[in-house]
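Problem statement: downstream parser choked on a complex file, so we are re-checking the raw output for the gamma-amino-butanoic acid run. The parser issue turned out to be on our end (a line-ending mismatch), but while we're here, posting the original submission so the record is complete.
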Amino acid sequence: MNEKIVVNSWNEWDPLKHVIVGKADGCCIPAPEPALDAKVPEDSDMKGMHGPRLKDTVDKANDLLNNFASLLEKRGIKVDRPVPINHNQKILQNYFNKDKNMKHETAPKPRLTDLDYRKDYLSEKIGEKKRLEWTEKKYFVTTEEEPLFDAADILRFGKDLVVQHGFTTNLKGIDWLKRHFSNHRVHTVNFPGDPYPIHIDATFTPIREGLIINNPQRRLPKSQRKLFENNDWQIIDSAQPAHNSPPPLCCSSVWLSMNILVLDPKTVCVEKSEIYQSDQLDKLGMEVIPVELRDAYAFGGGLHCCTADVYREGELKDYFPNQ
Ligand code: ABU
């Protein structure tokens, strides 16, 4: 029972050996709050709805997540599953007091090697409060009072961490990361094409050393490309999504097409219906493993969102010696 767990994951593409796959149990449609309103489109079917999700949708999402977990296990990857918690309850702590939490995530997203889950959870709660202030006052300054970051805004490239500044990660949060990861170089990026910058993992996706796909509606500005260009990394437009709209009661965008899980530098899991993204990755020389997950998107996102690396073979490297 007291099995020692080694956490080691320095980038997004080294061979994956141990991972967490989320569960849909207890997930809710989040209760309305101004920050959420800003993210959910006017014509969304989520408007005016909140509370526990219907059992048959939870069961369907769990079937898909279980199949995904089995597929990974069959490939020799150790898979852990979280213990479900009841999200439909009051939250009260230093920064946040909300009658109904109603979070809807399928998994924690601790995509850094030594951030603990609680920190991630707290930062998410602070994030909701701060986003609310941002939405009401309409400028970023109010979000800069306290450190706020979300691990899903952070990409690991060995010694370099690339962090999106947006709704879920503020500049104070990025300063916090700089202080706590003093052995790393932390780079701030943003993607002006994204009206609600929440999480980097449907925008900028490393495939393997030297190659990144970038959402063509949210291109990295030229001024922020130097790090990659100076080190001969290629940034190419991703393929278009296969769908014109997200599935029902889902607050992520259609760009979950890019929310993929790289198993090793030659193998990648892509959502089964995302035929254009699969085709592009196939042409880039990857073995593409189709994974059906679209009916679980509403529970917190795609293949990258619902997983968290525990162990990838490999060590800390410097991919960007020319800073
Ligand atoms: N976590 C990915 C969601 C980003 C998006 O909706 O585009």
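For whoever reads this later: The chain has a mean pLDDT of 82.
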